[in-house]
Amino acid sequence: MKGNDTILLFLEEVGLIGRFTGKFLSQWFKPRYEWNELLRQCYVIGYKSLPLVGMTGFIMGLVLTMQLRPTMLSYGVESQIPAIVGISIIREIGPVITALIFAGKIGSSIGAELGSMKVTEQIDAMEVSGTNPFKYLVVTRVLATTLMLPVLAILSDAISLYGAYLGVNINGVTSAHLFWMQVFDSISFNDVLPAFIKTYFFGFAVGIIGCYKGYYSTKGTEGVGKSANAAVVVSSVLIFIIDLLAVQITELLGYN
Amino acid sequence: MNSSALTNEIEDNIVMSITGLCKSFGKNVVLNDFNLTLKSNQNIVVLGRSGSGKSVLIKCIIGLLKPDRGSISLFNEEVSTLGDEALDQLRAKLGFLFQSNALYDSMTVRENLEFPLRRHWIKYNPTEVDVLIKEALTDVGLLDTIDMMPIALSGGMRKRIALARTLILKPSIILYDEPTTGLDSITSKEIIQLIISIKQKYHTSALIISHDMNCVRMASDLVIILLDGKCYACDTFENLKNAEDQKIKQFFE
Prior knowledge:
CATH class of chain B: Alpha Beta
Largest sheet of chain A: none
Largest interface: A-B, 15 and 23 residues
Radius of gyration of chain A: 21 Å
Strand order of the largest sheet of chain B: 6-7-8-3-9-10
Shape of chain B: globular
Order of helices and strands of chain B: HEEEHEEHEHHHEHEHEEHH
Largest sheet of chain B: 6 strands, mixed
Oligomer: heterodimer
Radius of gyration of chain B: 18 Å
Number of helices of chain A: 9
Mean pLDDT of chain B: 86
Order of helices and strands of chain A: HHHHHHHHH
Mean pLDDT of chain A: 91
Number of strands of chain A: 0
Structural class of chain B: alpha/beta
CATH architecture of chain B: 3-Layer(aba) Sandwich
Number of domains of chain A: 1
CATH topology of chain B: Rossmann fold
Low-confidence stretches of chain A: none
Helix content of chain A: over 70%
Number of strands of chain B: 10
């Protein structure tokens, strides 16, 4: 009986998120357009996440290279490090790690912000002021996360590769020209495009889950904390599920 | 004046009319056939125990909650039949002071007051916006807080800023949701005085939800006792205070 209840609750939650997504899709292209708020959110969500995403990307590239080096050395293929690191960062690690960092920073902040606005009646006040709070708060944030994560992922990839270049040069000497030539020679359009497209879905998932959890926050301040937490957990799991689906789809389409 | 002209004049004075309002949450019946009539330049205080449905009542009036049954008519317009745009236009004539103030904590006082002006269907130019903001802040005596954040203000100041935001669109009806809750007695009296002076200055009507007997006594023209989801009694404060009915008496003891 308890197991059935859990399944029912899970399915109910999935249904509610689906309905919330449907509402977003039906509202986002209808006037009135909240351009100013969308731009502000792009600035807050995109530009202000750049230092964190850049720093984690740099460390990721550096550490990946340093961890990979002994194994590659034992197989005698040390020269292939730039190619292997390049492919793994562009195809998988860059987009996924960036999305997870993004979920932790932006998903939680959206969940907490909307949650606290909900419990302090600010969302109701907005509605009374002649504003559609769903369009003003949810549509702008979901669009901003969907548009900004791909940009952040590209920048993170670039910074990661720079970290990898430094990593390669810690125990050896590889010229920048050789490093970048090896990276770009090993990467094809089929590596970049699917990885780039899936970041839009990651961004959408982070935005929609953060907004859903915050917008329907209950139980006062305790609920705000739970919303922020749930926004990170659910959107992180969703990122892996989307990644799994993306791999299957690219496989079917012959991009792998 | 003939009788039909007199009837018309009385009807013209009615700014809000609620008939047979019902609202339930699951099996919990909150409002059950509630009736109310608010006239122009009249303050009605709704008195009821905690959880009796007072806040639900004003959220139904402003359109934040949808009633199960019944009619809410504002300025002779039925709220339930209005589309989004018409409802927004109607809301321009209503002010709502939230119990929690509901100030946008990411905005300054100026931006909080500017928000309803920027969002509403009426378009104001920047000079008009500035004048209206300063006028509303002067009304509540807090002009010097214009560039402060709500978090930097005391509870009473936040309440007054929320009241200034409510006033900025010059509403004809103001709905006050427990305006003195959480305030000390001196600040409460200041807020009550503000409510009274707003009525005198702008000739607004008001529906006030309150537990505070000082507020009920000072700010009301009529008092409604909300009991079991119905309008149990409706009379002046003095008449209700002297009533023999035990259920009414317990509110004034």
